[in-house]
Amino acid sequence: MPHLEADIGVVHGRIVEGLRIPFYKDVYFETVFIPGFSDTHAHPQVIDAGLDTQEMFWRNSYEWLDERELHIDEVMVRQDIGVSTRLAELALKRAVLEGVTMIAFTGVLEANLKARLRFPTGPRLVLLPTLMDKKGWSTPQDVSRLYEKYKKYISDSLLRIGVFVHSLKWAGPKTFYGAIELASKGRMPLGLHLSEGISEGDVFKSRMAVVNRPPRIVAVHCIDDDPASLGIRCSSCPASNMLLYNRTRESLKGVTSFGSDWPHLLGSVPRHLGLILKIFPGRLSEVIRRITTGGYQDYGVSHTGDLVAYDAPLDRVLTGKPLPKLVMVAGSVVVEEGAIKETGETLRVIEKETLEVSKYVGEVYGDGTPPLVPGPQYVWDIVEGLGGEPRIHLARKTPV
Ligand SMILES: [Zn+2]
Hints:
It is globular, with a radius of gyration of 20 Å. The chain is of the alpha/beta class. It is about 35% helix and about 20% strand. The chain has 14 helices and 16 strands. The strands form 2 sheets. Strands 4, 5, 6, 7, 8, 9, 10, 11 and 12 form a 9-stranded parallel β-sheet that branches. It has one domain (about 35-300, about 370-385): TIM Barrel (Alpha-Beta Barrel), CATH 3.20.20. Zinc ion binds near residues 41 and 193. Zinc ion (ZN) binds next to loops.
């Protein structure tokens, strides 16, 4: 019987030397992860985060959302289903080429679902359509109706549906409880941005005090409150937190998984490994467990048959720089020799296409300037900066 062999295997979060498992052909790799990486928070429609106009670190997400300067009109991008779908498809392809075997998408439900149908092989996808009390965004009733309408497309075993409450401030009690009810009834996970630079634990507790049967809740960021004490899970996003606020959750306590926030802008979670290990030194096995199986557990997703293989030693993989040669999802090869098996696309091709879409979006829905799409180099630069010198990439305009 043929085998897959590897010098190092990272199996369900545990590091083993000399991995040998039955496989459909004889292959050898330096490092293999079983399952691959989970990315538990991603906005596939975000192509501009105001990174090139940022003059200071923000105090919290509300300040950032209110005051940032963007080159494009985000509302227009979201309403353009063609562009939104294309961005989601590129984010899915990017993620799997970077070693992600499970990803959670917030944002536009129809676009994210269409992207899944266009690229059905992987990674596993958790759909978390965003609910908030702002014009152009969905209500719990809208999402319930859409899930009913598309039910024949969402029975796909690589897909899990859920809901995402934007935040406590931008989703009032009516939307919040509507989302809780929808999630509880449908046994769906519920995500929300929480404590992103400002403590919201008390407000969260008081809102939850009247909920009898809470759904599975995955809070995102949790910089300022301990999610474990609130009885919820937490997807930490150190890369975007460091860029926006110059701080992130300092403790792994309560963190159950990691998210990339903006895969188009910073790459997906495996590219952030170097940063995560810099923030939590000496905690390798705890980080690895969260970054692989942790995300699957957060959303209740199976990882049977998911695997990522590298022609690079483990210590290099942990910098976030090498790309996998082989990625399998549910036992099927999705990436072979560093390219998508079905289409032959490499990460370089996907990055080029993303820049083209970003240019188009800048022209059609923006001020003519293409938004800055820096890529994971930005994250690697933060890692360098944490070595001593203060970080870069700020004050592109001289502060007044
Ligand atoms: Zn987010």
